[in-house]
Fold this protein.
Amino acid sequence: MATAYLNCRIKDSDDTAFLVEDHLITKTGSDEEIRKLIAGGDETVELNGMYVVPGFADTHMHLLGLGEYLSSLMLNHCTDSRQILELTKNRLQTLKEGEWLLGRGYHDDLEIDRQALDAISTEVPIVLTRACGHVASVNSKALEAAGISEETEIEEGDIDFKRGIVKENALRLLKKAMKEPDESRLQEYIRKGAEYCSARGITAVGSDDLVSFNSSYQVPLKAFEHMALKNEMNVRVSEQCEFHDPEEFSRFLDDGYTAGVGNEAFVIGPLKLILDGSLGARTAAMSEPYSDDPDTCGILIYDDTTVETFFRLAQRYNMPVISHAIGDAALDQILRVYEENMYEGNPLHNGLVHCQIMRRDQLEKILKLNLNCYIQTLFIDYDAGIVNERVGERTEYSYPFRTLYENVLTSNGSDAPVELPDPLKGIELAVTRTSLSNGKAMNMNEALTVRQALDSYTDKAYEQLGLENCGRIAEGYNADFAVLSENPLETDIPDIHKIQVMMTVMDGRTVFEK
Ligand SMILES: [Zn+2]
């Protein structure tokens, strides 16, 4: 049985209709041409002139983390701490015996301390994680459960015991103490995350999940693999594999995994390294102190030797490395490792995730080394309001999205659950570079055009993920597409984020319909 999609406009095509058979687009053409091919029993879908794009690809996120976030207490819309505490108190009533109270998503300017959370409960462990995921506020019960005392010290992490603020590597102590979700729970998270993606027109993601919980990488990996085997994935995943240390990565390679293992529903992608923290939490590693905190330069997660060990191991197995670097000191570290160890021209597609605070010499080096860049234009919404305070004049070469886009392979994403995935909002922010929430702008000479921004979620994104059979509405391609209420290229820029996703089809299956 085939399905004919009729009377639409198609990105990068003059055709107005196309035919989908099984999971492939088998023919594109005029309405007349496609109608002729329809046989009895075939389905027709009338699209009333709406705009069809290849399904968006979000090239860096945490799908499991997104699903967990959607299942937990979401605090992303909170504007003051009173609201957060109120919601936390209400959530307490809904918990089952033995469950921790987990919340996430409030921004860094809101301070929650241990005393406030103890007032809600001293019996149930409470962990509220900030939007960036690098800092959490906890109550006394959570500290006790994690075995954290006034004396606890942790490398590349920080614990403010009195106020109950836990940062970076210290968060692992909390994760260790929590009950591990089993495979069926993980699959529930994957389904939830995928469902959210489908509603935003996303059909493929680069996703970083292997250290989402304290378990070995095998547990989340199996959850994905089993769903892919049974054809249950509603979003394609290229896994950005993160590990706690090089030894764990080495075991993964010994198990026979490397980039390209898997199928089009779930495939092993690059090795992912997290080198520093976040700008909001002032844990991004800077070469000079923060402008609004002269005592802090942020946190580098690994020493140089460990980063190099990871890199050389990956390269030996032809696995690209992509590195989370937000501050310029993290960038210095990884650029040094890339420069000294990488093949000329970067044939393996090693890259950088975030590309935020940098100096001119670093930007030049990124272009010279031809690094692949994974940007998040959605971050502008929040960061435009804090970047000047945090780094002052260092903003000049920061978030240089246009320069990157025009010179090296650059694709977009959300880093969900840091920001909720939303390609249309991401496209608008890439162009306006102006926060929708506070109206502040970031150096406008680095704005993308609408065309570039749209491609950063489609053509460039598929190239980045290496999904060669996706990303076009053309014969022989996978039937992965989204139907939009309007064409972003013809919409007033401030209205782009209001365009609606009307339908999403992945692998020939309708996974979302309004
Ligand atoms: Zn991330």
Q: What stands out?
A: Residues 60, 62, 208, 415 surround zinc ion (CB under 6 Å).
